[in-house]
């Protein structure tokens, strides 16, 4: 089309107006050249996707028809100029171009038919309007030849399709048994829900890589686990959850580069193998995480989940499949606990943490909880008078082999070792005993972990101990953190409601650290909100005070008491008082102390403020 159009324009250069022989063909030829360059570029695997192919063929049909009509209309305009030779050239241009395009579109009969009909139809109408008998005869002659060519083209295409079908059927019969075996093997290594490789394929590939790996070869394996997937199943049903997994699986496959594989290992966990170093693997994992976090519309519902990822590199992390996977799993565990929503790579720091946790777990297994566990108490006071209104119980573990262990490590180890309920109940017994020794004007706060809230047996055991004691339940307050609500806020709500029915009160600790703050305030049966200690440091600047005041007003609008934590200087205490906070807690007021020291301070109120134990 481009060559023929250029020649036709050349023969009319001195006859037709300049734009008609220069500008118009230049535009159409440029479009054709661009289209040709697009077709000439190398074909990638993505270009062979069925959906992509269908879309490209549809565009070919549309563009072929549009360009053909554009060219023939241009030729009809040129036909207004020149003598019989130029008119004959126009007719030849139409005939040669339409026949050439038909043969070029052999693979797409629909496009060939539309091009022929549109071009010849336009040409015949033009000749009829011009009342040029010779041109009309030429048009009819070209139409008859074109009709024969289209008939041959259709028969050729149908014969080709039939032959190909026959060959496929013949080959299919010969390879039926072999194909069936291959299909069974493929199905055995394919996840039935998402259609992507499954756990068996993942580990078989990993073991094969380890067997063939050269000393200087590097590859990375990863684990991606969804966050907040269980609420989707619980709220919208398993059908929505399954559909969500299918969409996520396809997104991951779409982003998976040629040097990587992605597999569903089970539930909402996916595996990744990238034949690249840590930086390249981390880029792939982060791209997948961002894609997973995009909302998915399922029917009339828009759902979204988060995800965390863990990576381990061969050979620097491990050289065996089991150890490599375990290290990846630990990196994922660390991401979900400490850096939720991020990608964590296994490192020497995590190696040290593993060894520390193993030592702590071993010490906890053999620990005498009654002898090694204790509580310390930190007062909560009025900001105006520093009069104590209550104390918060803080767990302490003094191991004979490891020394003092932080409460965070104690709770994490207890959950891993399956002793979380036992430790919580042992500490609660100590707290109830201490509560009976404190003045009746003081209340006591006891911390519950997310594991406690999701364990109905632990809640039942706490209620049994409350019923068996003769303490005033109105003096007891259970503290929970926002992070403990992430797993299952509905279960937490039920557990807290059971506790509150006994007359105890509920406090939300570390408020403002993120997650589900506003939903927590509205949904949970709360009495007190404790502002996270990170806000106390911002009492000294104007923007910080405005933010903290806004949080305080929000809490008060819900008729909840408010405590600001982390008061470590006198200026912070004064600023908290000026900001309208009536209750405060922190090292400036008092450090955590033993029960005996607490009772001693209660008896001796000669100092202006509480001092450290």
TrEMBL record:
PROSITE patterns listed in its UniProt record: EAL, GGDEF
SUPFAM superfamilies registered for this protein in UniProt: EAL domain-like, Nucleotide cyclase
Ranges for domain EAL: 353-606
UniProt feature coiled coil, ranges: 163-190
Entry keyword annotation includes Membrane: yes
Domain of life (superkingdom): Bacteria
Claim: Ion transport is one of the keywords in the record: no
Pfam family, one: EAL
Record field: transmembrane: 20-39, 60-78, 90-123, 135-153
Protein name: EAL domain-containing protein
Record's keyword terms, sorted: Coiled coil, Membrane, Transmembrane, Transmembrane helix
GGDEF domain sequence ranges: 217-348
């Amino acid at each position: 089309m481009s060559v023929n159009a250029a020649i036709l324009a050349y023969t009319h250069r001195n006859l037709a107006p300049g734009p008609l022989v220069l500008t118009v063909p230049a535009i159409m030829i440029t479009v054709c050249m661009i289209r040709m360059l697009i077709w000439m570029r190398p074909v990638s695997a993505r270009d062979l996707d069925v959906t992509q192919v269908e879309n490209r063929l549809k565009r070919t049909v549309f563009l072929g028809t549009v360009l053909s009509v554009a060219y023939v209309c241009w030729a009809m305009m040129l036909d207004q100029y020149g003598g019989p030779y130029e008119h004959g050239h126009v007719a030849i241009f139409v005939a040669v171009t339409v026949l050439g395009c038909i043969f070029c579109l052999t693979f797409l009969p629909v496009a060939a038919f539309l091009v022929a009909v549109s071009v010849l139809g336009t040409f015949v109408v033009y000749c009829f309007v011009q009342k040029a008998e010779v041109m009309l005869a030429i048009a009819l002659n070209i139409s008859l030849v074109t009709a024969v060519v289209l008939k041959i083209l259709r028969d050729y295409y149908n014969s080709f399709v039939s032959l190909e079908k026959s060959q496929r059927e013949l080959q299919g019969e010969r390879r039926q048994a072999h194909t069936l075996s291959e299909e069974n093997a493929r199905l055995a290594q394919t996840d039935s829900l998402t259609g992507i490789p499954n756990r068996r394929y993942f580990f078989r590939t990993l073991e094969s890589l380890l067997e063939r790996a050269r000393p200087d070869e590097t590859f990375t394996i990863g684990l991606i686990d969804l966050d907040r997937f269980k609420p989707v199943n619980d709220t919208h049903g398993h059908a929505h959850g399954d559909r969500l997994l299918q969409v996520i699986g396809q997104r991951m496959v779409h982003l998976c580069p040629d040097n990587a594989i992605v597999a569903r290992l089970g539930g909402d966990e996916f595996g990744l193998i990238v034949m690249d170093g840590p930086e390249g693997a981390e880029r792939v994992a982060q791209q997948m995480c961002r894609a997973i976090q995009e909302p998915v519309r399922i029917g009339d519902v828009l759902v979204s989940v988060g995800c965390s990822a863990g990576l381990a590199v061969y050979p620097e992390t491990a050289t065996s499949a089991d150890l490599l996977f375990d290290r990846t799993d630990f990196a994922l565990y660390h991401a979900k606990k400490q850096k939720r929503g991020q990608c964590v790579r296994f490192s020497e720091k995590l190696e040290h943490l593993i060894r520390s946790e193993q030592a702590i777990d071993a010490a906890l297994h053999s620990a005498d909880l009654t002898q090694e566990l204790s509580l310390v108490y930190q007062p909560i006071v009025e900001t105006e008078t520093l009069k104590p209104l209550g104390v918060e119980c803080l767990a302490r573990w003094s191991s004979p082999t490891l020394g003092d262990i932080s409460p965070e490590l104690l709770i994490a180890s207890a959950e891993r070792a399956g002793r979380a309920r036992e430790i919580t109940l042992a500490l609660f017994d100590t707290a109830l005993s201490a509560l009976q020794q404190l003045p009746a004007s003081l209340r006591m706060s006891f911390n519950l972990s997310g594991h406690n809230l999701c364990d109905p047996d632990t809640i039942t055991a706490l209620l049994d101990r409350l019923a068996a004691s003769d303490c005033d339940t109105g003096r007891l307050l259970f503290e929970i953190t926002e992070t403990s609500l992430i797993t299952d806020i509905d279960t937490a709500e039920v557990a807290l409601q059971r506790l509150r029915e006994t007359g105890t009160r509920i406090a939300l600790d570390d408020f403002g650290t993120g997650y589900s703050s506003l939903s927590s305030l509205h949904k949970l049966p709360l009495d007190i909100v404790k502002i996270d200690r990170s806000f106390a440091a911002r009492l000294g600047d104007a923007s910080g005070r405005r933010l903290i005041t806004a949080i305080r007003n929000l809490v008060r609008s819900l008729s909840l008491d408010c405590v600001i934590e982390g008061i470590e200087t006198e200026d912070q205490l004064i600023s908290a008082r000026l900001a309208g906070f009536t209750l405060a807690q922190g090292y400036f007021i008092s450090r955590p102390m033993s029960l005996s020291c607490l009772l001693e301070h209660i008896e001796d109120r000669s100092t202006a403020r509480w001092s450290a134990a």
